[in-house]
Model the fold of this input.
Amino acid sequence: MPLIYKFFTVKNQEELSGKIYNYLKDHTDVFTKKLSWLNIDIKNLIEHIPEFEEAMKVVTDSPISFASVIYKAPGHDGGEHIDYSRAVRVLFPVKNCQGSYTKFFDLNGNSVRDVRTDVATWIEIDRKFPLKEIASVELTRPIVFDSGVPHGVFTNPLCNGPRLTITVGFVHEPRSYLDN
Done:
């Protein structure tokens, strides 16, 4: 049975996270919009931080198809959902990830429905029954994860700012990376 998530190691991860944070400050409006999900221009990101693309090659040689920044305020609790693509992607820590968790769940008999907005499309879970937690990860290092497994973000209420991560999709998803 495939894993739900798996850590991978990036050389100079903290330095790379710092460069990404500075890029987000200088080249996006993530801090003014404060949206949970904000697509970023991957070509521009790679132009400014070419080592980011190299870091993704630890997982797959497939080209990056998109990148989005995920912004969650301190104390955010849940938002359990399934990503519309259900693809295997990378989740890369940028800032304030210590003590915050991405938790994965079993639907426990709940039904789901598509939700579409101007910003994103996702699959919402009808919460008639409690979800059953099946895994949890503190994003201290990058992970490859299956976005088709119900998941939510639970941020540390004591963080001095939002939890920032970048999720990265690929032309060919690295599903085999999660094989045991």
Notes: The chain is about 20% helix and 40% strand. The first helix runs from residue 13 to 27.
